[in-house]
Amino acid sequence: MPTPRPKAPAVPLDLGCHLSIAKGLPATFDSARKVDATCVQVFTRNPRGSSQREVDDAEIATAKTRRAAAGVRTLVAHIPYTVNLASPRAHAWDFARQVLHADLRAADRMGAQFVVVHPGTHVGDGLDAGLLRIVDAVGHALEGYDGAALLLLEGMAGGGSCIGGTPEELARILDGLHGDPRVGVCLDSCHLFAAGWDLRTPAGVDACLAAFDAAVGLDRVRCLHLNDSLKPLGSHLDRHARIGKGELGEAGIRSVVTHPFLSRLPMCLETPVDDWPDFAEEIRAVRELARVE
Ligand SMILES: [Zn+2]
Ligand SMILES: [Zn+2]
Description:
By secondary structure, the protein is of the alpha/beta class. It has one domain: TIM Barrel. The chain is built from nine helices and twelve strands. The strands form three sheets. It has an eight-stranded parallel β-barrel. It has a two-stranded antiparallel sheet with strand order 5-7. A two-stranded antiparallel sheet has the order 10-11. The longest helix is centred in the middle third of the chain and has 20 residues, at 90-109. The radius of gyration is 18 Å and the shape is globular.
């Protein structure tokens, strides 16, 4: 018997993509409008380098106006991938700690609702030691922080010394922070699939979310990175593919974006488009898949 089509989401998708902030935050919102994105993700600083771009009050005020004009509901700030909160190297770990502390505040000032960070890699030093360093770094970032932006730990593809590839590992970090309400979780459809969750059917999505609910609580899950996966189920390889062009395929993306819980989360595409205007096509494709006859 074929699986019945899920009901259409009650609210329109809050869907968008990762965009460059190189020309300033106001220009980012202009780009968002051009690709019809209501959700925008930006890096808090150059993903390769380490320098933080100073954003002054005037730029923030202009950005607010442009954001409203563009109809952007959700702004997500992503900490650069090079920041490793679990690093066993003292210098790298100190740097990661400082970046998280500074960028959480900077992103909050910019009006971001969420600040996403990868838990990190322990680089052979062991899971327990890595988890302790993550908890310490996040705890440091939250010291005296009373902003509105929530810090979200991203669920990863796992494998190797990568931390955060299972709901239980994310739960251990949250437990280490005594369930601090300023911390939540961001999921990624590609990472989940690579971690072994078969999202290609509604039942598979349900099973995955049941595990996250049991370990961290679904109320903690606040944002979704929507990506297809270039690599197969359980490969633990984090390689994004364009929507419908990867191993998740159209069926997988459809079961994710029509899921009653996931369809209500802000969604950011991080798919490998040639250039940002191509996100318009990706967003259109997702909206098409989300439509239920
Ligand atoms: Zn990420
Ligand atoms: Zn990824």
